[in-house]
Each structure stands twice: as structure tokens, then as C-alpha cells.
């Protein structure tokens, strides 16, 4: 959706003009031309280019406008807006967020430390004005004297220019600092200065903002030096940018960061990763929240007159999104992410035209038209589900329409059944009949699913479809069936490595998962997280059938999610301090049991003759892990992969992380029983009835494991749909039977039939017995 159409144009802003432009001295090396972040209608420079160093007219009015305390009443309706004159040589914008439609999913380690920034001129830094101790002493003196002059002078000097910023916060005044792993910035000093800033008088806060404006103006027109990146790194953390009155300055800072070259972005990513992993995850989260709030308030401003017209600042949101992409990459580079990936979600986007965003992305990709789909990490799983559902519905309509047109063109009488994927199966031959039906009706997989059990009367209004999924999944994953191995330690299933002549049943499981996503059905499947990572490798089926699918980089951590004991043993091998060759006596050969026969496999050519030593043990662990999770089950998983993607062949799928695919298939593990109570429907009961009050008193007092058992008993799964508890359509019906009976569940309809128990104790006892001695299927 075009940003120009999101927000009504506000009143004419206060203009702060710079002096006449100059050509940049010294041209930078030629770089690959990349699409700008601005929208198509905004032009290549979107009204913000490098200008000349010069005085800023009407500066006192500008400072009055950006002050947190709008002292002058006449300035309240005149927000500040910096306008820079246009010049040539605007920096091209690097691909911070790669096009997620690419054939192969790119590793999050793309921002590797091996990438080196171009050689830049070494800046001559001023002398460090104060140490952190000196600054803190000055702040303490203020408490007794009330004199802010020393503190004011520090802020005035420090924020006057980029070199002064670097000099003030440099950890070692004599050391050179320009490594990708360490910014050389004293982060604790930066935090102390910013924490103090918020409690200083308004004139000091205005001084800082004035200094930032002057610094940005100088940087925009001058050649870049090594200290620029560190200055951006410091300024981005300024908490003053939480205030909407500073958003004009904040926007220009974000744009200058967004337009840096890609090598510079790699520096910033690694600096953020290093600083916040050592210091404060809370501050990293605040940085992310500040950017998300900036986007939200630009989309839906509480006071539109506070901001410049949207037509003049269409680059605000794309710039913020690009900087968020840097932080998201830094977060993913850490072994244990600094904050959950869900903290990057912007729930405000749930209220915009998501399909227009999706179609813009489909049609223009990462070109001149901005779309939030270029940055899918900011789109919530609920919003992505809406996109996937509507895209699926549109595909269903198109397929059904085509079938109808074909029928009419052949002068045949249309049949309404042709609009659906009709499954007719026998309960006694559930797997074979389902496989036959899906094979015969491969062209109909993207139609609406309807299920009929042979010999049984009934119209499928959703209940039969869910029952078909439940029964089929239950049978396929049974240990006796041999397709999957259940690992008790990790409570999950994994693909059996047994070789067979036909892998069509693995394809069936993939189709089932695809149909579940396509038809918004939550399945009770327990695959480890790496399964979904493999399922998106690559996220779309390659046009070249010789390209392997379902192969991804795996580690011992991935293996630990399936076989924790084996993973622990390999970790001990890696950390063993003795002689590995003599103590373990292993070779690059592994053994597996298949139908009672022990078979050997070489992890590399001649592996049975290569001993595992201290020098090659990392290679051994990596090859062994890859063998278990990739090579030994390749044919099984490839069939599963093609089955899933035969249904979910949609660009919308490429917006998802592996964790989000798991949530779409299996639901979320986070339970909110209070939300379930609010959304529950009643049949034969009222929510004020004593039995219902007893029920909720008992359920809300259950520990988490019993709450999960209750959910599994009544719905067939202990997880929650993406839309939350309300999407369960949970119903409690009155069962007019003896109170000696246990509760009964109809899992196909998420319905609990509850006798009118007379006491809370009796209800609790019967309910616990019922939910603890069932596998999720009541009396159907």
C-alpha cells in the first residue's frame, strides 16, 4: 500500500533550510546500483540529499518546536521539519533485507565477520574531554550546588560533531579502534550520559538536539570517515527519540544509517550483537520498540499536525524498516537471541491493508515500491496467517472457477462437488484410501476440503474433516506403522531411516500438513524445530529437479532437540581434554540397525580407516550430525517436502520463519485459560450456573500439565490456534446423565459434555480422571 495514502496531509511544517548545496569533494568508488528505499512516487532522493555545511535559518523556532516542552503556543501546531537541498551523488542503498522470494533461503550468518569495510581515512579525534568518572562527579556536584554549567558544557562539546562524539566515548584514548567485533565505544559511559540527559534541564536537552542536527548536516555533505559509523552507533541509542517532537531529527538519522554501504552495515550489525549481548538486553529491546513506535505513529499519528506531510516524508518508514533489519540480523547472529523474534512484531500492521502490501511485494519485489513484506520479521504471525488464508482462498476460487469453465466449455452440466476436494474413505482402510484419493485428485489439492466416510450418513461442516486429520495422523505416527520413530527423551517424532521401495506415504504426510495450513486445521504433530527449517530449504520448489531439497545446515543443538543423549555424547567428545583417538577409539564410520540387521555407513570416503582424533573431531561431529538429520533420511524427507509444497506452493509461505510454520501447523504452546473462559460458548448451561463456576475454579487452578491435558482431551491438541483461544470455538454442553459419569469430549467440534456435578470436589475428581485417561478422543 502506498504510504502516501495512509495518512492525511498535516499542516504546513516549520522549515529549516540549509545553505546552498555543494558538490561532494572526492568521489567514492563505483558501487553496484541498488534500488532505493523510497516509494516509487517519491523520486530517487525523496527530498533528502546531502547539503552544504552552513548556518541553519530560523533555528530558534526549530528548537522551540522540537522541545519536549512546547513553550511557545504558536509553535504547537508547527512541527519541525528539516529540508535539505538536492544535490548529486546520493549514496545508493544496500540490500539490508534480502528479497525473501529468493530460491534459496540465505543463512542469517550472511553478515560474517570476514567481510571487510573499504579503507577509510583515519579521523583525527579531539582530546577526550572527560572520563566517565569525571562526568559522574560533575552530576553529583549538581545535586548540592544546583549548577549545571559543567554538565551543560560537556553535552555542548560532545554532541557538537561526530569527531567529538567519538573522542568522548572512546574506551582507550590511545588505541586504534575500527574492528568489526568491537566498536571501541565505552557503552557504559554512553548509557550513563543518556540516562542523565533525560533528567537535565530543557536547555541542555535542546543543546544536544541542536548538536545532532549540525552533526547530521555536516555528515550529509562531507566525505565519510571511520568515526561516522561509531557516531551513528551512539546517536541511535539516544532516548530523546522516544518523543514524537524529535521524530524529524530521528528520521534523518535513520535515513543516513539506511543509506550506508553494505560493508558499513556489517560493522553496525556486529557491534550491536557484541554490545548488547554483553551489557543489556533491556536496552536492545528499547531500541527495537523505539523504531516500531516510530513506524506505528507515522502510519497512525495521534496528532497528524505534528508531522510533515506524508508526501514529503515517504522515506521515513522505509528508513526505519531498514535499520530494524540491521537489529534483527544482529539478534539472529547471537547463539541465544537477545530478544524473542516476536518482539520485532509490529501489531499496528494488523490494521493496514495487508493484501495490498502482499500484492505490491509480489509485483515489485525489492524494487522502488516499498512493502512491509520486504521485511517480514515485523509482520506478526496473526497477520501472516491472514495473508496466507486470503491467498489460499484466492487460489481455491481460481482453481474452482477454472474447473467450472472447463465443464461449461465441454457443454457438460456443472456439479457443485467439482468445486471441492472430495475425499471418500473407509475407516478400515484409512491410510490406503486417503493415499489413493489424494493421488487421483492431485489437481484438486487447492480446493476446499470435504470428507465423507463410506457407509456413514453425514454432511461435512468441518467436524468430519477434523476427524479425518486426527485419525489419519494418529495411525500414521503409531510406532507399529514404522514411518516415524518416537523419541521419549525429546517427546517428538523423527523420520525413520529404514530404506523402502516406495516413499509415497511420506508424501502423504507432507500433503496432510499442507492441507492443514491451507484449510486452517491445527494438527497434533510433534516434529522438532529443525524439521521446519528443512521444510523451508528452499522455501519454494526449485525449477531444476536435480537440486536437492530439504537439506539445511545442522548443528549439535539441532540434534539435541531430537536425540539429547547422543548430542550430549558428541558434545563431550568435542570438549574431551585427553587423547580422543586412544580414549574413544572411533572412526569416521557409523552403524545403524535396520530390521534387526546392523549396517555400517562411512561418513566420508574411506571413513572406516580414518580415526577420530583431537584434530578432526569437529569434522566428525559435523558429518555425523549431517548424516543423521540430512543424508540418512533424504528420500523420506524429500517426499515429505514435495507433498507439503504441492499444496502450499505460495509466495506467502516465504514470509515465514521455521518457528512460524510450526505454529501454523501445530498451534502455539502458550495457553491462556482466562481467554478460553471469556470465549467459551454454552449449550444447556449458563455461565452463571454453579456447575460452570465450579468448572472454571477448578480449571484455572490446574497446573499447566493438567490444563494441556484438558485442551488435548477436548480438541485433540494441547496447542492453541494462531488466532488465540477464541478461534477454538470451545463449547461446554450439559450432559443430562448421572453425575457418576465422567465428562465426554467431541474433539471434532471442540465440545465438552459435562454432567451437572453437585460439588466442586466431585467435578474436579471426575474431570482429572477423564482427561488423564484419554488420548484426546471421546465417544463419537
UniProtKB/TrEMBL annotation:
CDD domains xref list: HECTc
Enzyme Commission number(s) from the entry: 2.3.2.26
Region (Disordered): 1-46
Natural source organism: Macaca mulatta (Rhesus macaque)
Domain of life of the source: Eukaryota
Protein function: E3 ubiquitin-protein ligase which accepts ubiquitin from an E2 ubiquitin-conjugating enzyme in the form of a thioester and then directly transfers the ubiquitin to targeted substrates.
Record field: catalytic activity: S-ubiquitinyl-[E2 ubiquitin-conjugating enzyme]-L-cysteine + [acceptor protein]-L-lysine = [E2 ubiquitin-conjugating enzyme]-L-cysteine + N(6)-ubiquitinyl-[acceptor protein]-L-lysine
GO molecular function: ubiquitin protein ligase activity
Keywords assigned: Phosphoprotein, Transferase, Ubl conjugation pathway
Catalytic residues identified in the record: 748 (glycyl thioester intermediate)
Name this protein carries in UniProt: Probable E3 ubiquitin-protein ligase HECTD2
GO-annotated biological processes: protein polyubiquitination
Amino acid at each position: 500500500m502506498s504510504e502516501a495514502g495512509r495518512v492525511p496531509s498535516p499542516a504546513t511544517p516549520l522549515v529549516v533550510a540549509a545553505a546552498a548545496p555543494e558538490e561532494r569533494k572526492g568521489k567514492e568508488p563505483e558501487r553496484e546500483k541498488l534500488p532505493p528505499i523510497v516509494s516509487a512516487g517519491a523520486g530517487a532522493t525523496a527530498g533528502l540529499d546531502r547539503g552544504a555545511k552552513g548556518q541553519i535559518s530560523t533555528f530558534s523556532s526549530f528548537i522551540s518546536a522540537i522541545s519536549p516542552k512546547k513553550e511557545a503556543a504558536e509553535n504547537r501546531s508547527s512541527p519541525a521539519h528539516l529540508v535539505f537541498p538536492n544535490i548529486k551523488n546520493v549514496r545508493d542503498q544496500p540490500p539490508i533485507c534480502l528479497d525473501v522470494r529468493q530460491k534459496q533461503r540465505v543463512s542469517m550468518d550472511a553478515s560474517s565477520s570476514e567481510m571487510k569495510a573499504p579503507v577509510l581515512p583515519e579521523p583525527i579525534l579531539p582530546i577526550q574531554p572527560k572520563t566517565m568518572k569525571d562526568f559522574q562527579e560533575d552530576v553529583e556536584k549538581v545535586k548540592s550546588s544546583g549548577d549545571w554549567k559543567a554538565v551543560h558544557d560537556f553535552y555542548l562539546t560532545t554532541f557538537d560533531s561526530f569527531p567529538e562524539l567519538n573522542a568522548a566515548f572512546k574506551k582507550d584514548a590511545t588505541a586504534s579502534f575500527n574492528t568489526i567485533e568491537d566498536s571501541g565505544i565505552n557503552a557504559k559511559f554512553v548509557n550513563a550520559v543518556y540516562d542523565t540527559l533525560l533528567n537535565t534541564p530543557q536547555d541542555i536537552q535542546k543543546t544536544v538536539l541542536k548538536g545532532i542536527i549540525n552533526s547530521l548536516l555536516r555528515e550529509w555533505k562531507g566525505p565519510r570517515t571511520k568515526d561516522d559509523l561509531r557516531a551513528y552507533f551512539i546517536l541511535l541509542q539516544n532516548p530523546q527519540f522516544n518523543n514524537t517532537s524529535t521524530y524529524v531529527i530521528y528520521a534523518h538519522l535513520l535515513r543516513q544509517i539506511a543509506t550506508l554501504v553494505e560493508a558499513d552495515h556489517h560493522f553496525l550489525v556486529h557491534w550491536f550483537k557484541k554490545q548488547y549481548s554483553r551489557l543489556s538486553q533491556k536496552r536492545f529491546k528499547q531500541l527495537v520498540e523505539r523504531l516500531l513506535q516510530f513506524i506505528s505513529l507515522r502510519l497512525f499519528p495521534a496528532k497528524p499536525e505534528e508531522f510533515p506531510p506524508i508526501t514529503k516524508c515517504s522515506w521515513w518508514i522505509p528508513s526505519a524498516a531498514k535499520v530494524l533489519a540491521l537489529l534483527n540480523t544482529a539478534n539472529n547472529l547471537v547463539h541465544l537471541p537477545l530478544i524473542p523474534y516476536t518482539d520485532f512484531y509490529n501489531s499496528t500492521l494488523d490494521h493496514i491493508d495487508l493484501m495490498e502490501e502482499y500484492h505490491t511485494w509480489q509485483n515489485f519485489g525489492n524494487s522502488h515500491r516499498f512493502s512491509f513484506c520486504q521485511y517480514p520479521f515485523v509482520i506478526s504471525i496473526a497477520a501472516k496467517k491472514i495473508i496466507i488464508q486470503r491467498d489460499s482462498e484466492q487460489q481455491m476460487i481460481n482453481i474452482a472457477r477454472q474447473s467450472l469453465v472447463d465443464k461449461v466449455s465441454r457443454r457438460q452440466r456443472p456439479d457443485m462437488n467439482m468445486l471441492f476436494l472430495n475425499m471418500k474413505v473407509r475407516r478400515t482402510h484409512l491410510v490406503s484410501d486417503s493415499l489413493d484419493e489424494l493421488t487421483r485428485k492431485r489437481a484438486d489439492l487447492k480446493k476446499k476440503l470435504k470428507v465423507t466416510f463410506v457407509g456413514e450418513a453425514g454432511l461435512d461442516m468441518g467436524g468430519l474433516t477434523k476427524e479425518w486429520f486426527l485419525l489419519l495422523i494418529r495411525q500414521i505416527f503409531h510406532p507399529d506403522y514404522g514411518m516415524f520413530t518416537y523419541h521419549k527423551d525429546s517427546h517428538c517424532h523423527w523420520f525413520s531411516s529404514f530404506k523402502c521401495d516406495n516413499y509415497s506415504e511420506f508424501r502423504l504426510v507432507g500433503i496432510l500438513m499442507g492441507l492443514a495450513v491451507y484449510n486452517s486445521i491445527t494438527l497434533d504433530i510433534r516434529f522438532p524445530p529443525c524439521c521446519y527449517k528443512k521444510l523451508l530449504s528452499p522455501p519454494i520448489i526449485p525449477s531444476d529437479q536435480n537440486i536437492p531439497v530439504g537439506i539445511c545446515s545442522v548443528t549439535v543443538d539441532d540434534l539435541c532437540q531430537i536425540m539429547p543423549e547422543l548430542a550430549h555424547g558428541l558434545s563431550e567428545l568435542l570438549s574431551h581434554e585427553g587423547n580422543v583417538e586412544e580414549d574413544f577409539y572411533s572412526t569416521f564410520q557409523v552403524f545403524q540397525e535396520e530390521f534387526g540387521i546392523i549396517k555400517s555407513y562411512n561418513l566420508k570416503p574411506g571413513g572406516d580407516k580414518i580415526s577420530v582424533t583431537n584434530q578432526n573431531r569437529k569434522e566428525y561431529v559435523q558429518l555425523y550430525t549431517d548424516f543423521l538429520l540430512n543424508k540418512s533420511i533424504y528420500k523420506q524427507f524429500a517426499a515429505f517436502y514435495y507433498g507439503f509444497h504441492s499444496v502450499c506452493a505460495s509466495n506467502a509461505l516465504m514470509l515465514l520463519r521455521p518457528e512460524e510454520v510450526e505454529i501454523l501447523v501445530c498451534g502455539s504452546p502458550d495457553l491462556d485459560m482466562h481467554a478460553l473462559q471469556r470465549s467459551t460458548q454454552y449449550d444447556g448451561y449458563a455461565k452463571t450456573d454453579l456447575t460452570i463456576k465450579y468448572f472454571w475454579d477448578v480449571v484455572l487452578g490446574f497446573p499447566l500439565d493438567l490444563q494441556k491435558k484438558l485442551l488435548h482431551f477436548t480438541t485433540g491438541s494441547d496447542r492453541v490456534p494462531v488466532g488465540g483461544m477464541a478461534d477454538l470455538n470451545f463449547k461446554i454442553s450439559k450432559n443430562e446423565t448421572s453425575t457418576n459419569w465422567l465428562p465426554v469430549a467431541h474433539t471434532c467440534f471442540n465440545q465438552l459434555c459435562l454432567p451437572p456435578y453437585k460439588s466442586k470436589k466431585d467435578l474436579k475428581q471426575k474431570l482429572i480422571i477423564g482427561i488423564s485417561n484419554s488420548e484426546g478422543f471421546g465417544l463419537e
